[in-house]
User: What shape does this take?
Amino acid sequence: MKVLKFGGTSVGSAARMQKLLDIVNPQERQIVVLSAMSGTTNNLVEIGQAYLTNDKAKAATLIATLKEKYEAVIKELLKKPETFEQGKEVIDYHFRLLSSFANDLFTPIEDKVILAQGELLSTTLYHIYLKEIGVPSVLLPALEFMKTDEDNEPIVDHITAELTPLLEKYPDMNLFITQGFICRNAFGEIDNLRRGGSDYTASLIGAGIRSEEVQIWTDIDGMHNNDPRIVSNTKPIAQLSFDEAAELAYFGAKILHPQSVFPAQKYKIPVRLLNTMDPQAAGTLITNTSEKDKIKSIAAKDGITAIKIQSSRMLLAHGFLRRVFEVFERYRTSIDMITTSEVAVSLTIDDTTYLGEITAELGAYGSVDIDVNHSIICVVGDFAAEKHGYAARVLEAIKHVPVRMISYGGSDHNMSVLVKTEDKVEVLRSLHSRLF
Ligand code: ADP
Ligand code: ASP
Ligand code: MG
Assistant: This one.
């Protein structure tokens, strides 16, 4: 059984929803994961923000505007009076819910409920559309099987346990529709898998049911060899290994949610990145194998803070790095890059929630310097093929730009540099023209 995920643009209008059946084959048993219609989650974030700042008038205006958009969608999508009425009831229900928070004490828990409405709307409306055109399908509520634990880690075994019986209930049904992004957390509250999380949903479901393949359908023909929003003449990559894809996703290739590769990787489920706007395009196939002797792709991750701890006393003494790392562990802050020398260690983080506390505690081990507004530029490829001198070529390409950190040798397929975000565009373009 395959899992097909369609992103925001792929369900971004009534016309796009109607086109999905060019790709989804109702004769094949499959699970279709849908994102919210494009723009909706951003609008829901704004609505939540308005409530959080107690600007109820703004929330009401935003809700009214979004509701009009959905009303226009069903006018185009649902042509029969009875299905149109059902669509209208669905919209009324979800928008009444959004408006109801004006009366409540608003907390981050309610905010998550707001964020969940986009996927609930898109899947329910699509399900009604399928009914209208006579294509049988089952709407599977993701909140019944997608769950995270105390560390906010999704529980694949829970998906297997809950989803398998749901699927078995419909042995003759081919099409199952479900929501990406949303889940329940360890407290049973409605939560989500973070922005872009529908990719993660698809991979998790794929892992949970040991799917034969996961397909991520989006608005571009696969993973490109650089960020197409910044660099022109980027090209799709035919094949990536799970490790390479994970590296690119984590270091900023927006086409994939940062964690989405891991569940598929664990169960060796091939992942294909495909283009809804050009279904015949080959896209990118992600599997266990990788093409050798190549630089594959470049990605960039912004919002990076570098922390340098300088100490004459103990830097390379045993136990010193452990104590440094323990500070980050205490504040549940993960480290992306590390470089060391005899007298100092530098590392980077992207979550600065506890930067003040972390800096204060690190002060016990030496002097601490903070550099904000940096970007990690990650080059992925077969760096083990040393004969090509790839590392030297990377550095040669960016020799005119100040580099704050370099990380090489952590794995065979990655080299990363840390630069000021203001230099990012130049670095991406320069690397592109010299490496490809
Ligand atoms: P969806 O809504 O389908 O999940 P996203 O917007 O999350 O789509 O991801 C697709 C977008 O990712 C593309 O339109 C492209 O602009 C962006 N992107 C960034 N880096 C890359 C890359 N290396 N390869 C392909 N797309 C990329
Ligand atoms: N709708 C969610 C978002 O915009 C999840 C997704 O699209 O993957 O982040
Ligand atoms: Mg996405």
